Amino acid sequence: MSDIDILKIIKADKARKLLQEDKRFDNRGLLDSRNLEIKKNVMKSADGSAWVKLGNTEIIAGVKFVVGTPYLDSPEEGSLVLNLEMSGIASADIGTGPPSIDAMEYGRVVDRVIRSSECIDFKELSIVSGEKSFIVFVDCYALNADGNLIDAAQYAAMAALLDSKIPKLDENNNIVNKEYADKKLKIDLEKLAVSFSFCKSNHKLFMDATEVEELASDSRFSVGVCGNNVVSYHKGGGNGTFKIEEINKIMDIAASKYLEIKNKICDKK
Amino acid sequence: MATVKRPDGRSYDELRPITIELGIAKNAEGSCYLEWGKNTVIATVNGPKPVLPKHLADPSKAIINYKYRMATFSVPERKSPVPGKRDKEISLVSGQALEAAVMIDQFPNTMIDVNVLILSADAGTRVAALTAASLAAADAGLPMRGIISAVAAGRANKQIVLDLDKEDEDTEDAVDMACAFLMPQKELALLQMDGFVDKKECSKILESALVGAEKVYEIQKKALLDKYPVEGDIQ
């Protein structure tokens, strides 16, 4: 906190006051999201990729398949590894050094939303039972951090996964570079989950916070939904608390916005 | 309700036995030893003290430096002593939960160290850890606006259950929701869940967790009153 630009702190103070009057700097309603743009297949070098713009927040996600050894407790399954990187590219407030705890937290939330929805059939990723299987690496890079990196990264990761093609294997089951087996990664669209993050400032609940609004909030709550089902809950972002009624309200709002975002993620572009 | 039982003989809304001992770590300002079913936890609290490294100091409040660690022998397969992503994430969100209870605004530019070690794990360690840590904070004499009473609720074998143990967690349709309530305000200071649950069922699990947290709260109050007796009634 102490490393943050003083101007942002002043703006956050103003944002806090505005939010109490149901107002925001960008004239959005408290429960309106910023404009979302998703572009798929943006990098030739990745096995799948997507570029997401959520307002001024930008994240690029790339998928790489690697042949590895399956876990002992699931010998006939592949696996998923998801990471989020926030470097100095994303914000002047991010220094050098080891990955920040925030990036790690965000990455874990995104990972859980995708994993617990069970939209990926890991059995399809087995190559030789107990010996070889595909590990799907999804790496998200924040290019511009302006709040709500969790949702932006989740949309980017999901879109990149939908865009990914499974590499071709040679006779020794090693990946042949730049050649693809004639199939895409199988994803059950009925189970596709979408993340929605809400923040609370004093007693005002709002969603899709900008960076300044995040500084102005007491806590954050992220929910992963799949239609009328919940796949994950995560409270973070500070020492504020939520009432049970607020959690139920968040769940309903997220469910009502699910299809709109899902359609954007699934869009062929 | 009481006739239907779980593998370990508990009814669906029954907690595992909890025993608490305060002040067991003599070198700490506040400490708590807690046994929760087969979970064993030790928590200590020290501070407020000067912040290190200095640049982390917050002029508006104390920062809580919460460390959740699992002993290498706490799980069936030896756990690496190096804290993984899971440990770090739990430390982060648990620290925030505890900050909701401790009046951190009274100690600007300071740091409060909270160390929790899981000695033996059997599902629900993060809630056991927070339950112990908040008692250790009270034992250290920190001013608090409430106590964190944490408990997990979820689903096992199509049934909403309170306080899942490893056996419940290993069922096919298991869902585990870790909840920490600031009591007596009944506000959520930590909430984490993974699974695939219908919205309505999700609300029911949350309600069940609150009932559980109220029970944990009573046990915590008793432990505090045993060590620090007061005359008359307290809430």
Write a concise synopsis of the structure shown.
Chain A has 269 residues and is an alpha+beta fold. Chain A is built from five helices and twelve strands.
Can you describe this structure?
- The complex is a heterodimer of chains A (269) and B (235).
- The radius of gyration of chain A is 19 Å and the shape is elongated.
- Chain A has one domain: Ribosomal Protein S5, domain 2 (2-Layer Sandwich), CATH 3.30.230.
- Chain A is of the alpha+beta class and 269 residues long.
- Chain A has 5 helices and 12 strands.
- In chain A, strands 1, 2, 3, 4, 5 and 6 form a 6-stranded mixed β-sheet that branches. Chain A has a 4-stranded antiparallel β-sheet with strand order 10-9-11-12, sandwiched between helices.
- Chain B is an alpha+beta fold.
- Chain B has one domain: Ribosomal Protein S5, domain 2 (2-Layer Sandwich).
- The longest helix of chain B has 29 residues, at 199-227.
- Classes of the chains: A alpha+beta (269), B alpha+beta (235).
- Chains A and B meet through helix 2, strand 11, strand 12 and helix 5 of A and helix 1, strand 9 and helix 4 of B.
How many structural domains does the protein architecture of chain A include? Answer: 1
Low-confidence stretches of chain B: none
List low-confidence stretches of chain A: none
Sketch the topology of chain A as an H/E string, one letter per element.
Answer: HEEEEHEEHEEEEHEEH
Mean pLDDT level of chain A: 94
Query: What is the C-alpha radius of gyration of chain A, as a whole number of Å?
Result: 19 Å
Please give the number of β-strands of chain B.
9
The CATH superfamily of chain B is GHMP Kinase, N-terminal domain
Kindly report the greatest chain-chain contact and the residue count on each side.
A-B, 38 and 38 residues
CATH topology of chain A: Ribosomal Protein S5, domain 2
> From N to C, what is the helix and strand string of chain B?
EEEEHEHEEHEEH
Sheet with the most strands of chain B? 5 strands, mixed
Q: Strand pairing plus helix content of chain B: what structural class? A: alpha+beta
Number of strands of chain A: 12
